[in-house]
Amino acid sequence: MDSENLIKKISKHTGFKKKKCEAILEKIFGLISFQLKNKNNVSIEDFGSFRLIRKKPQIKLLKDIKTVFPPEDIVEFELSENTLKKINTNSKNE
């Protein structure tokens, strides 16, 4: 599902106009991005957690040339146990 379809579904289920749903969704994603940019993990109860993992610098040999790759932050997402159970329960019933 892309963001446009998600906005349509939120609008349908809430009765809010699509523009309002889009603004809310953009704000949520903006806040999550801001927290991650500032090295803060984000946990959404009964949904999951975003966390930053710092990759160590790496030295690789590419075409006989040593190349240094600097450390970088990777964002990892982990579903909550409740969400995982819901997904597994729903998929078994289909």
Structural class: alpha+beta
Query: Main β-sheet: number of strands, strand sense, barrel status?
Result: 3 strands, antiparallel
Proportion of residues in extended strands: 25-35%
Report the end-to-end length measured between terminal Cα atoms.
Answer: 18 Å
Task: Determine the number of helices (DSSP H or I, runs of at least 4 residues).
Answer: 3
In which order are the strands of the major sheet placed? 1-2-5
Oligomer: single chain
The whole-angstrom Rg is 19 Å
Instruction: State the helical fraction.
Output: 40-55%
Label the overall shape: elongated
What is the total tally of β strands?
A: 5
Contiguous low-pLDDT stretches (5 residues minimum) are none
The residue-averaged pLDDT reads 91
Order of helices and strands: HHEEEEEH
Molecular structure report:
The chain is α+β, with helices and mostly antiparallel strands and about 90 residues long. Helix content is about 50%, strand content about 30%. It has a three-stranded antiparallel sheet. A two-stranded antiparallel sheet has the order 3-4. Helix 1 crosses helix 2 (about 20-35).
Would you kindly provide a brief summary of this structure?
With 94 residues, this protein is an alpha+beta fold. The chain has three helices and five strands.
Features:
two-stranded antiparallel ribbon, elongated, alpha+beta, 31% strand, single chain, 3 helices, three-stranded antiparallel beta sheet, 94 residues, 48% helix
